[in-house]
Structure prediction request, 867 residues.
Amino acid sequence: MSQTIPDPPEEIEESSLAGSDYERALVLLADLRERSGTPDESLQLWRLAVAAAASAMARRGERAETVSGMVATLSLARADQLIQTSRDLFKQANSRAWRGVILLAEALALRARVLRLPIAIAEAPTRREQAIGFALSQAQRALKRRQYQRVLNILRDLLTLAPDNLEAQALLDTLAQAAEAQAQPPRRREPALTLREEDDGALITPPLAIWDEIALPDAEPEAERTPTPWHEVDLRQVLGPGGPVARYLGDRYYFRPGQLQMAETVMQAMRSAGHALIEAGTGSGKSFAYLVPAIWSGQKVLVATANKLLQDQLWLKDIPALQQVAPRPFKAALLKGRSNYICNRKLDQMAKRPTAEHQNAGFSAARFIEWAQSDSGEMDALNLSERLRPHLTIENHECLGNRCPLIRLCFYERAKRRVDQADVAVVNHSLLALDLNSEAPFFTMPDVVVVDEAHELASYTATALQLTLTYGKMQGIINSNHVNYYLAGALRGQLQSDNNTLFADLTENAPREAFGRWELTGAQPEMARMALHLQEAAKAMQAIKAPYGSEEMNAEFRRFVEHLALSQFELQMMAAEVPAGRVRFVERMNAGDPRSLFVIQRPLEVSDFLAEHLFDKVKTVICTSATLRTSDGYEFFRRQVGAPTDCVTLDVPSPFDYFNNVLIYTAPHLTPPDRNGDEETYQLELAREVYRLITYSGGRALILCTSLARMRYLYDTVSPHVKFPLLRQGDAPRAELIRQFQAAGNAVLFATRSFWQGIDIPGEALSLVVIDRLPFPVPSDPVVAGRDRLLRASGGEPFSQLMLPEATLALKQGVGRLMRSESDRGVIALLDSRLLHKFYGRSVLAALPPGRVTSDRLDVKRFFDAG
Prediction:
């Protein structure tokens, strides 16, 4: 396709962007033009990029002169119109083009800030550093993709702006080496030693030779893919009796009409490039229902589920089963967070200088060879001891990225590459949200994304978008070797004093009524003071170019300085007035200990973010869970995640026989008291009710409480009077408590909200689930109070639109712990009479599985006596 440069569009002929800038920007669009199809579409992309840049810059509150060059010839109304047009075009096709436009818009905005505004740079030097960091990240990303011309263009601009930038110079060297590597075989690194004199004579040596012997099977080129025509995929033949799934499962198979219906809905959504919201009851087989349509049709699919436990279930159970019966081989990939993988560089350093602590924890030369040559480097798969893990993992800010001598073999980077090459990739909600929010995404988003356990998507996304400040995080900076070596002692002492004072004040000034967390309103001068001193530290260390005799240590130093500057920027944001739509609060783990405090600023809602970055950009998004619906159907969930109103919806009931196997008991005499009620009498009667119920069931019970204090009271009150084994959350790790519970066969486990979901205990060991009260959100919680205010401001009604739906979904999760297989039976005891006499009680009960409902306690005794 021709690469001729079109004439500049009318909107920017007179703008402050010079012709050379225009030409360089068009180079960035080269790969887009290859996919665009027509010169007119390329021209439209350029217009959209300029419009997006102008609009974004104006909305960020830049100085008037920052945007005058663009806005003078392109009104904000016209910019908004063009952006909306681009989104409409995106919904029809070409999602990659829109992602490219956004990246280009950011690049243009940053270039305009840096190259055209020397006054603004002088007043805000951090803006220059942000622009340089952005350009470097784009160059590194292009280098990974072997887009060498693009790397060269970016570096040319960057070195014109910052000729002394060592990272850009290092990238140029890497680029030259990459060009040479195409013509010459790689040469083995010569052994050499370099000395870092400042570190007590510690030796920084090249990586061990064994790394050069490791082959990378995932580096092979991707095979050609030919999706199967939709009409040739007969899902009934695949999932129905006599099909490949039935033959594979053998005696474990039984036909599930709901599973087939869900699979057909997923297939139709993929065929029409639409979205679907599907509530699939326990036992409906939803994993196969969304995997089979994608695999059999040859569509790439990314599955995001809530946590590592659910990822492992898909990876170790469901995907291997389908690989046995699929009509053709397919690649699968698993990606977890960085902290789940061994850092090759740390492993190399441990092998060269093992300590007695490492060896006592299980490290040996044989283990090093085993781990270095492993396929995944995932710590759980390698059964690394808990004592070794902190020594072999790194945080994001510690990673040297492309400056690491072992980047080619990095386990985490290899896992990310596998995701791009996979037909079926499994990630978690946090990684999905971080990828959507990243300037340099972790992986390429396919046309089909399945969000499993989707009821947790909004919460994980908000967490991924939050800012967090802890005493330990700041202490890690202050105690860094780089700070000890190269920062003046007075400034380091000032930072230490700031950190101590800030967290001591937060502890002392906590509201008396605050229990677990409390809101922190207004500007925070102590934080601002520490941010100012952190900025001074960052400037001082940025002035140091190459302090060490080792390039590897210099790369580590530069990475630390980047982390220091970013931490200062985040702290400055935390110190300012809280922006609209966000909330800042303090969370306390241990009373009286300032080191246990977390200061968090997070968004109150993420619907707009997910609408723009997920639902508007991915052709097909399937959201599924056993708990999506409330009394208003899918409306609450749709508002939470920003799903469009035209999503297809489907209710897949559980195939289990709830009516004959489950009794739902609601206690008519237990009403939680209000603030002025008799709490002591209520709690005692609640404990008596729990005692009666576990006596009827012969133990075999899970007591789910809505607060830690309630759990402790019930355990302490009931435990002296029963003969069953009693277990309590917090006395052992969760996995160990579940193991003990199942092994005992008649145990009673007291737990709080973390046990309301993700617990799978089939069989008679769990026959009674007791819930102490309706799990309404706590109104005084800062996040809940903030969402309440936000809803009221928009004319909403918090109880019906927030509190009741949240309580209903949480109750459905807790209730779902009982029936885990078709042969299970038992009682769900809801110890809250509001279900019987409040106006909302009937709608809440209607949302639960269709068991028999009673308010007669003796029916519980008769149920267990009959079983």
Observations:
- Residues 551-575 form the longest helix (25 residues).
- The chain has a mean pLDDT of 80.
- The CA atoms of residues 216 and 266 lie 35 Å apart.
